[in-house]
Amino acid sequence: MSHGRFDNPVVASLAGFLDLFRKQEFSDRLKDDDRFDGRTCLITGVNSGLGYALAGEMARRGARVIGTCRRLLDETEKNLKAHSGSDNVEIRFLDLSKIDSIHDFVDGLAKDKINLDVSIMNAGVALPGARKTASGQDEMFQVNYLANVMLCTLLLNKGLIRRGNKASVVRPRIIFISSDSHQGSSYIDYEEFGRFIPYGVKKGIANYSYFKLILNTYATELSGRLNDGSVDVGVHVICPGPVHSNIIREAPFVLRAILGTIFRVIFRSPGKAALPVVYMAISPDYEGRTNEYQHMFKRKKMDEKVYIPEEGKKLWERSYALWREIDDRAGALDETR
Ligand SMILES: NC(=O)c1ccc[n+]([C@@H]2O[C@H](COP(=O)([O-])OP(=O)(O)OC[C@H]3O[C@@H](n4cnc5c(N)ncnc54)[C@H](OP(=O)(O)O)[C@@H]3O)[C@@H](O)[C@H]2O)c1
Prior knowledge:
Blueprint: H1 9-19, E1 40-43, H2 49-60, E2 64-69, H3 73-84, E3 89-93, H4 99-111, E4 118-121, H5 139-157, E5 173-177, H6 201-226, E6 234-239, H7 253-266, H8 270-282, E7 293-295, E8 298-299, H9 309-326
Parallel strand pairs: 1-2, 1-4, 2-3, 4-5, 5-6, 6-7
Antiparallel strand pairs: 7-8
Helix pairs in contact: 1-7, 2-3, 2-8, 4-5, 5-6, 6-9
The structure holds NADP nicotinamide-adenine-dinucleotide phosphate (NAP).
Residues 16, 45, 47-51, 70-71, 94-97, 122-125, 143, 177, 179, 239-240, 242-243, 245-247 line the site of NADP nicotinamide-adenine-dinucleotide phosphate (NAP).
């Protein structure tokens, strides 16, 4: 049976707080004049929290930002333009819990011939219990893991993230927003994989960390498959550290009150938490590199299970098999990249 590092949300939050005191070796590497001019950046989940701050900061630094939301589209676009002082922000609809929405979103980008330089898979949920999606998956598994596989694969398959330009000075980057709480989660349990199994708050917290371990294992495998010998597309993972965001909004009332206080008093603002992600997206330090992991501004290793080649290969095969099972439109997908 799978398990995550934590099953107590208060302990998980306090562990995140302690992380703030660890040395942040790259904290002075992001400069005020580091800019994204001429680059198109996709960020999922930009109506609140880290995604909103990232979209604003990247637009402010000259990026053409394509942000996604499943609600508050017009309001988010208006606020982000005002907040960043840039008109180069466009919000598109994407609900990652719905497979058709992922296809429609990517088809829309393809129709508009978008070329993505940076793709940040940020959207995520922490749910207090299991909830079934229309395709029969657990919602947190779908949104935090499988939807990212689908989105990345479709973006690559349709040439929206361009490959084959190894000589280019600036190669595309894909960044997965994860959590350092993935460290210490169990091996991937393939008896459970993709099955809807009801759970409550404790297992929900554990699953959050465990699904991030699955995500990081996929990122590592994707990085290996895309980059044979030299780097074509940089695939990286980052934990933004503890962020005062909306992530606990579905927690039961009393727990939300306790966690809300912890978040308000000791967690960092989304604006501050966004900076290491901006650094990873923009810095020449990452040019020609792939499969790096940053915990805030500190470069480190992910859980050792993430790097086991057999784990990555098995996850890859099982993920695409599951996708084919649940999606009529998966037929034409090219899973080799
Ligand atoms: N907060 C932390 O301390 C912390 C720590 C480590 C990692 N992270 C990670 O940081 C990322 C951003 O989270 P956050 O803390 O900024 O939380 P947040 O404020 O709740 O933002 C999450 C974003 O994801 C979107 N989202 C949720 N379900 C979606 C779906 N089905 N389809 C499309 N978008 C969906 C949300 O949209 P709605 O508003 O419509 O739900 C929102 O825009 C997540 O991947 C999270 O796991 C957070």
